[in-house]
Amino acid sequence: MSNSLDASRIAEIQAFDAEKRYKYLVKEVVANRQIWILTDEHGCVMLNTEDEDCVPVWPNQEFAEAWATGEWEHCKAEAISINKWHSRWTAGLEDDELAIVIFPNQEEDGLVVYPDELDDELKQQARKQQR
User: Fold this and answer.
1) Could you name the CATH architecture of 16-130?
2) Cα distance from N-terminal residue to C-terminal residue, the chain
3) C-alpha 56, offset from chain centre
4) For site-directed labelling of 108, which of 44, 100, 101, 124 has its Cα 20 to 30 A away?
5) pTM to 2 decimals?
6) Which H or E run contains 38?
7) The organism sits in which domain of life (predicted)?
8) What is the rounded CA–CA span in Å between residue 109 and residue 101?
C-alpha cells in the first residue's frame, strides 16, 4: 500500500510536467502494485482528445480523488492491481481501441499512450526494481 502523501508533496508532484508525471506514475504503480482510475455508474471515466478516446489513470488514490471535482464529482477512485492491469486491462483497452491518458492534471493535460506502451514501461520498471 502507498504511504499517504501530504499536501505539499501532492502540490509538488502535480506541478511536474507531463513527462515527469509519467515517470512518477510508472514508478509508483510498480512500487504499490496498483494503478488508479475513476469510475461512475457507467464504468470507467473516459476523456477525449481530437484523435483518441482515453482512459485516465493515476499513480495514487489522492490524485484520482483530487480529479473527481466539478462534472466528475460523482466519480470514485478505484484501484486496479498491476496483475489485473497486465492480464485484463491492457488487452481490453487495445480491443476497444482506447488509449490511456497518463496522470492528467487539473487542466486535463497528460501524455496519451497506447496500452501496450504503458504495459511495456511497467514491466521494464518492475525488472529494474527487482535488481
Assistant:
1) 3-Layer(aba) Sandwich (3.40)
2) 21
3) 6
4) 124
5) 0.91
6) strand 34-40
7) Bacteria
8) 8
